[in-house]
Amino acid sequence: xxxxxxxxxxxxxxxxxxxxxxxxxxxxxxxxxxxxxxxxxxxxxxxxxxxxxxxxxxxxxxxxxxxxxxxxxxxxxxxxxxxxxxxxxxxxxxxxxxxxxxxxxxxxxxxxxxxxxxxxxxxxxxxxxxxxxxxxxxxxxxxxxxxxxxxxxxxxxxxxxxxxxxxxxxxxxxxxxxxxxxxxxxxxxxxxxxxxxxxxxxxxxxxxxxxxxxxxxxxxxxxxxxxxxxxxxxxxxxxx
Length: 240
Fold this sequence. Notes:
Helices cover 33% and strands 23% of the residues. It has 240 residues and is an alpha/beta fold.
């Protein structure tokens, strides 16, 4: 029987949010941002969840999110690292024995069950996939003087999102090689698979609503999307 684990990353500082509270704990619809990702995995075919968060917020996550909202699939809460990739590694170490792992940023609250199930289906076929969306704007490559030097064809450009899904043994092997190399320019997990195992990552259609909350403006936009998805309830208990 195959086993599928999700790693939810909620250990960021969120400095661009201009808030004392890390962005993953800011509220939308009177619930913390993190709640929405955990709820999506709770309602999916994923077997269990490893939550990675800041040491000082572990108790809060356990009592005020997981217990309060009856999230049953979170089996472990672990501390994050100094960089995103170390947080992922801390999560991976708790997933031994699983077959597939889905890695998701808690700062993307508009995750849907559809995205999760399509990721699970695709990773079974190819071993490495990520959700993403085609870019809408023209993209410029610039030099150190901010001068445009190239304009890549838009039809080949996608904006990568999460979850990113992998064979567990492959992502662990790639991370082990990365640790030896001392690489520090890693921005997502598909880079690690491509760079250290030489494997291609399949990109499947995500959703333009699946934005990463980074600034106060993103928080407002996410609330609009969550209301559209009927994930937010108003003060009288109505879906809005």
